[in-house]
Amino acid sequence: MKIMVADDDRDMVDMLSYWLKGHGYDVVRAFDGEQAIKRWRETLPDLVILDIQMPKLDGFEVCRQMRSETNSMVLILTAHDREDDEVRGLEMGADDYLRKPFSPRQLLARIKAVMRRSSNTRGMSGSSAITVGPVTLDAMRHEVVRDGVKVRLTPTESRLLHLLITHTGQVLTTDMIIERVWGYDDAGDSGLVKTHIRHLRQKVEPDPNSPQYIMTVPGVGYTFTAPVSVES
């Protein structure tokens, strides 16, 4: 597995590179936003560990450009007290975030979760397209077709929509979604799910402010209510 570490703190990059290589990962390093984009395009890593505050291009813009071109997983690093950065990073297409300071054990747990997600995504790749009214999910290509128009999904959005559709009529708790989509064994951040649900509604629902398919069950989680048919 190839991981890119992008941070203007060279000590942080050196430490993470040394530790990741010691655990058997290939590491690509970058120290500013422009360099991160260049090296990412050259090496196409499986996972990008991306600091938000970098010179030349900040992490938000780097994430936005990456997400428009590829399905690489993106993990953003944020300051402990900057919740707005976490929300904005997810809105730019990041799959997850990790708050500084963090321990090597926390980072390893995130990386292992990414590997489980990647394995789950490959498991979906052989599935038939799933059609829901005017919406067709193609999990392999990470896209939906809505009213004849292709809409690109992030890998996380694709897994989340696949989970919801394949459990139509069932109420999925937030913890269950976090475990199945993000791969965490412990309780995660409900805001992570809420943000991705909002993004999915913008891409899937005719009117995101009045959803027909992805419904909130207050205090519990979410359910998919539309009838599903699977193409042969």
UniProtKB/TrEMBL annotation:
OmpR/PhoB-type domain residues: 127-226
GO cellular component: cytosol; protein-DNA complex
Domain Response regulatory: 2-115
SUPFAM superfamilies (UniProt xref): C-terminal effector domain of the bipartite response regulators, CheY-like
Cross-referenced InterPro entries: CheY-like_superfamily, OmpR/PhoB-type_DNA-bd, Sig_transdc_resp-reg_C-effctor, Sig_transdc_resp-reg_receiver, WalR-like, WH-like_DNA-bd_sf
Keyword Cytoplasm: no
Keyword field: DNA-binding, Phosphoprotein, Transcription, Transcription regulation, Two-component regulatory system
Annotated Pfam families: Response_reg, Trans_reg_C
Modification sites for 4-aspartylphosphate: 51
Biological processes per GO annotation: regulation of DNA-templated transcription
GO molecular function, one term: phosphorelay response regulator activity
Residue ranges for the DNA-binding region feature of this UniProt entry: 127-226
PANTHER family: PHOSPHATE REGULON TRANSCRIPTIONAL REGULATORY PROTEIN PHOB, REGULATOR OF RPOS
Official protein name in the record: DNA-binding response regulator
Taxonomic classification: Bacteria, Bacillati, Chloroflexota, Ktedonobacteria, Ktedonobacterales
